[in-house]
Specification:
A hairpin with a 4-residue loop joins strand 18 and strand 19. The protein is mainly beta. The protein has 4 helices and 38 strands. It comes from Anaerostipes hominis.
């Protein structure tokens, strides 16, 4: 652990000053009144021997510090003083003891309930920090109760505020992602790209702990643009993921304010012209280590977790340069399917992408080339029916989303080619008797992969399939010998195979023949 030298020196200086101050106290105040005692105090207290001196010490503490470096203000503490003597006091005031090198009065405020303290009466002092901007330090001083200019009671007093966190030096390589050049910064770690259009914008970030202490938690600045996937600003992970060598995967979800404020963000970001995206820095994600445990997860003797919550990488703000991109073009994947097909029309459907401005659909008769724009559709559209097509023909379709941002249009990627096709047309059939057989002929159907021939006996009989051709070139069929003096009906339909499945056209008109 690398502790800030400045904080260590400051704490040491505070302790030295307090020891000098205590040593001078006895001879500095000749008019102290031993009959004035502290009856109660709602704050804390250090017992004799705990501190750097051998006397009890009343205390005021702020154990936490906010991400903006201000302290978390404690509630007001009240100290009650009782006068058990015979002397009355009428002009009291309360101040903090100070010397020529330190002025404590700017840190702590003391509010005396009354200037008077008669015999066998009490007076109270309300104690708290003057504001939330107190710097990290441990100060040992005293509360002085004064009558005019004379100090009549000296009460040993201490106050402290948590430092933010001490530092760990870690490598940017501990974050997932690729290295990219960030304008004005140089080569930094890129942790992903989020879609400006989508309502749920998520960065999935991986962090591998290559340090010497377990991770305590990850934190996000509440005033920033992300939360964790549970909507909170702290993520603790599991013990196995937090150990040295462990891996945490963080899902950072962009808040809606990212989109509403994006016009301002884009001005300060860097524009990637080729990929239509804005490059931004993420300075609000922090890693906090727990130095109370070693790399093996065992408690370190004599070391307790700091009251302010562990050790942070990179200092008071994250100095690890993590970048991410906000894509202006839609990143969502469009999956298409044929929801219905007829002889002269095809209906293409796709999944809806939230936040886009609309869709465009394209068609070709070849899988990998020749696509032509067909139609532009609204953001609510999830299907399109392509009409006036040729029967029995194979077609390919692509769909892509677009988004209108700041007066410009940005297109997403095309969907994968969708192979589709129309159903074949109805055959035109002729049926003739040849002895006791039926000779069935029909014209070749464009695009047909094959045909099925059906015959039924009598007007009320059921059609039975008597033949299936697997070639579109077969255009006639001769039946087996049939029964005499029976009437037979025949019909034909064509089919087309698309993606391994048969799609049938309509039945031909039924033809009637009687066997003599």
């Amino acid at each position: 652990m690398k502790i800030k030298k400045a904080v260590v020196m400051l704490l040491s200086l505070c302790l030295i000053i307090s020891q000098i101050s205590m040593a001078k106290a006895a001879e500095a105040y000749p008019n102290l009144d031993e009959n004035i005692i502290v009856k109660s105090y709602s704050g804390g207290k250090y017992e004799a021997g705990e501190g750097s001196n051998a006397e009890d010490c009343y205390a005021l503490s702020s154990a936490e510090r906010n991400l903006d470096q201000t302290i978390v203000m404690p509630s007001d503490k009240v100290m009650v003083l009782h006068n058990s003597g015979e002397k009355d006091y009428t002009n009291l005031s309360a101040v903090l003891e100070e010397d020529s090198s330190t002025n404590y009065n700017g840190d702590v405020k003391l509010i005396l309930s009354s200037k008077e303290l008669s015999r066998n009466k009490t007076v109270s002092i309300t104690i708290n920090f003057a504001n939330k901007n107190i710097a990290p330090c441990l100060n040992r001083t005293a509360v002085l109760l004064k009558e005019g200019n004379d100090v009549v009671k000296r009460i040993p007093f201490s106050y402290d505020t948590a430092g933010y966190r001490d530092e760990h030096n870690i490598s940017v390589s501990q974050w997932s992602g690729s290295y990219d050049y960030f304008f004005g910064i140089g080569t930094v770690k890129n942790i992903g790209t989020i879609d400006y259009c989508q309502s749920k914008k998520t960065l999935k970030v991986t962090y591998k702990n290559a340090g010497t202490a377990p991770v305590l938690k990850f934190t996000l600045d509440p005033s920033g643009y992300f939360t964790f996937s549970n909507g909170k600003y702290e993520y603790y992970g599991s013990s196995s993921a937090n150990k040295v060598g462990g891996t945490n995967t963080l899902n950072l979800v962009a808040k809606s304010k990212l989109k509403s404020d994006f016009a301002d963000i884009a001005v300060t970001g860097s524009y990637d012209i080729k990929n239509k995206r804005i490059a931004l820095m993420l300075s609000e994600l922090l890693v906090v280590y727990n130095d109370a445990y070693d790399a093996n997860g065992n408690r370190v003797p004599g070391v307790a977790l700091d009251s302010h919550g562990g050790c942070i990488e990179g200092g008071q703000i994250s100095t690890i340069p993590l970048s991410y991109y906000v894509s202006l073009k839609p990143l969502g994947t469009i999956k298409t399917k044929t929801s219905s097909r007829k002889t002269t029309s095809i209906k293409v459907s796709w999944n809806k992408l939230n936040g886009v401005s609309g869709y465009r659909i394209y068609r070709s008769t070849k899988k990998n080339s020749g696509y032509k724009y067909l139609k532009q559709l609204s953001s609510e559209s999830t299907s399109y029916t392509n009409k006036k097509l040729k029967s029995g023909k194979t077609y390919y379709y692509k769909v892509r989303a677009y988004s209108n941002v700041f007066g410009d249009r940005y297109y997403g990627a095309y969907s994968a080619p969708l192979k589709s096709g129309t159903r074949p047309a109805k055959p035109k059939v002729t049926v003739k008797r040849s002895g006791r057989r039926l000779k069935i002929k029909y014209k070749k159907i464009s695009g047909a992969s094959g045909y099925r021939i059906y015959i039924r006996t009598g007007k009320k009989g059921k059609y039975k399939r008597v033949k299936q051709y697997t070639s579109g070139k077969k255009v006639s069929y001769t039946s087996k010998k049939l029964k005499r003096k029976k009437t037979y009906y025949a019909k034909v339909r064509a089919y087309k195979i698309i993606n391994g499945k048969k799609y049938f056209g309509g039945y031909s008109k039924s033809k009637k023949v009687k066997i003599k």
